[in-house]
Amino acid sequence: MKLILDLDTGIDDALALAYALALPQVELIGVGGCFGNVTRDRSVQNNLDLLALFGAPEVPVCPGADHPWGADGYRPGDFKYRVHGENGIGNVLLPAAGGRACETPAARFLVEAARRWGGELAVVATGPLTDLADAIRLDRAAMASVGAISVMGGALTVPGNRTPFAEANICDDPAAAKYVFESGLPVTMVGLDVTLQTKIVGADLARWRQVESPAAAALVGMSEYYYTNESETGEIGGAIHDPLALEAALCPGAFSVLPINLTVETEGPGRGRTIGDPALLGRPEKTTRVCVGVGAAAFVAKFCGAIADWLGRD
Ligand code: BDR
Ligand code: CA
């Protein structure tokens, strides 16, 4: 499967990047870096540095959106720094990559890849949905031809993690998310309903710790930061939100899903809330598959095992 990841890198975004590189059936053809957990420029640089560290510097990194629709700019809030550290990757310091980001904006890259690869391409967005929305706005038909669109974001059956109603990625750009979910394109939503079921703790990293390499050390360092800081209540355990969105693109049959036509509230106390579109309740065709269940322990074991095997390779 050809894959584009659009990331706001972010520790669990970095884990999704590692997971993509670890899976032999995935051909990572490009990575977008957008605002979200960090600024757009930090996200791009994190992607470049991580790809160099992971031995894949040839994968193009495209600059994504640097602010939400309808805003002039963006600054990550304290919540982001608590969960992901000052630099987005748990304050782990990586050597600066020699390479540079490509000129093509992420949305344009998505459209060009969709035109070229159509159903062979999967797109996984794990930050605000701004780049995906921009791509659909640029060429809806091309984006409709993509084989799978999976997004980490939203909370349908559980409370939000940013507000009582809203999940962070959707909250960062509710207008773009609304545009994506109302576009009529088939989208798989991997939100807190399912991602909060998949958490890592220290014991899950035992095999990563046995590998002596800079990549292993960085992944262990980031993950340790993450599983001790993700929860606001001090509970230990980090939800591997973003790798699960990749899993849903790869193995859709592994999830129980609720088909629904979604919208997003863009104002008021429910700003950023993903909710069924009342205007489309009677429509038999449902365009979003909301993931609500997965074999959580099996996924955590598969994810940790795939990365351990990959780290252990020469
Ligand atoms: C999402 O927000 C970010 O903090 C994570 O990277 C993930 O994509 C979880 O709500
Ligand atoms: Ca993310």
How would you describe the overall organization of this protein?
The protein has 314 residues and is of the alpha/beta class. It is 39% helix and 17% strand. It contains 13 helices and 12 strands. The strands form 3 sheets. The protein has an 8-stranded mixed β-sheet with strand order 3-2-1-4-5-6-12-9, sandwiched between helices. It has a two-stranded antiparallel sheet with strand order 7-8. α1 crosses α11 (214-229), α1 packs parallel to α12 and α1 packs across α13. Residues 8, 10, 12-13, 36-37, 126-127, 242 line the site of calcium ion.
In short:
The protein has helices at 11-22, 40-53, 78-84, 106-117, 130-138, 140-144, 168-172, 174-181, 192-195, 206-209, 214-229, 241-250, 296-312, and strands at residues 2-7, 27-33, 61-63, 121-125, 148-152, 187-190, 199-200, 238-239, 255-260, 262-264, 274-276, 288-294. The chain is an alpha/beta fold. Strand 2, helix 2 (40-53) and strand 3 (61-63) form a beta-alpha-beta unit.
